[in-house]
Amino acid sequence: MNTNQEVKNVVKDKYASIAVKESGCGCSCGCGSQQVEVNMIGDEYKNVDGHIEEADLGLGCGIPTVFADIKLNDIVLDLGSGAGNDVFIASKLVGPLGKVIGVDMTNEMIEKANYNKAKLNFSNVEFRLGEIEYLPIEDNSIDVVLSNCVLNLVPDKNKAFSEIYRTLKTNGHFCISDIVTKGNLPEKLKKSAEMYAGCVSGAIQQSDYLQIIQQTGFENVEIKKSKVIELPDNLLSEYLNEAEIKAFRENEIGVFSITVQAKK
């Protein structure tokens, strides 16, 4: 069994490679020879005010800024900020007197984000190297926490949400897009889904995900958007019978992108 550090090292190497190549290949995927390119966002980001193409590596599974209720002068924290995509969108929402901090554990992503920051002349954003389980952020200092298809890759999700809770101000909130599963997926199917859409890796049951949030102490937990991750019939038929495929297609079981919000 992989240790937490081994998992982190794999994720770090993968994102470093993507940063250096300056392009994504769907959601958090590894770009391997067996990988199928999947874009879970489509063209949605192109219609979002403040979207900057150079900072969008196609690694997200939602658009948390749309639902995050970010206000002028807020201090916003983006976890797993990558090349700065959601940071730059949020920076426009908080205005010149607000601030957006992006945290990423990959040096190459921090370098790329800072390059984009300098090139685009953003003055209200900052990028910090750090891990989500040990955030380089002061207690009770953040109004809104964002994250996009990253927490599923964090080995200790209890610690991750505990850190989010610690850094948020009283009455602050988070808005996170992430990948979860529903129902009993055969392990072989889950592994194949990881190859098809890499960000499935590390995903847990939606009910368990929401329970962690509630047990951390958050209130008003609400799923703002849920979207099924479509897997092709030829993949499903390798592991499921016709009745199980029908249940999968009716969204009783499967892999989902959710955008969830909760308040401290």
Q: How does this structure look, described?
A:
It is a single chain. This protein is of the alpha/beta class. The protein has a single domain (4-181, 201-230, 257-263), classed as Vaccinia Virus protein VP39 (Rossmann fold), CATH 3.40.50.150. The chain has helices spanning 4-21, 64-67, 85-94, 107-120, 157-167, 187-196, 206-216, 233-236, 242-249, and strands spanning 75-79, 99-104, 125-129, 142-148, 168-182, 204-205, 219-228, 254-263. Strands 1, 2, 3, 4, 5, 6, 7 and 8 form an eight-stranded mixed beta sheet that branches. Helix 6 links the parallel strand 5 and strand 6. Helix 1 runs parallel beside helix 4 (107-120) and helix 5 crosses helix 7 (206-216). The longest helix has 18 residues, at 4-21.
Task: Summarize the topology.
Blueprint: H1 4-21, H2 64-67, E1 75-79, H3 85-94, E2 99-104, H4 107-120, E3 125-129, E4 142-148, H5 157-167, E5 168-182, H6 187-196, E6 204-205, H7 206-216, E7 219-228, H8 233-236, H9 242-249, E8 254-263
Parallel strand pairs: 1-2, 1-4, 2-3, 4-5, 5-6
Antiparallel strand pairs: 5-8, 7-8
Helix pairs in contact: 1-4, 5-7
Give a quick set of tags describing it:
264 residues, alpha/beta, Rossmann fold, 8-stranded mixed beta sheet, 8 strands, 23% strand
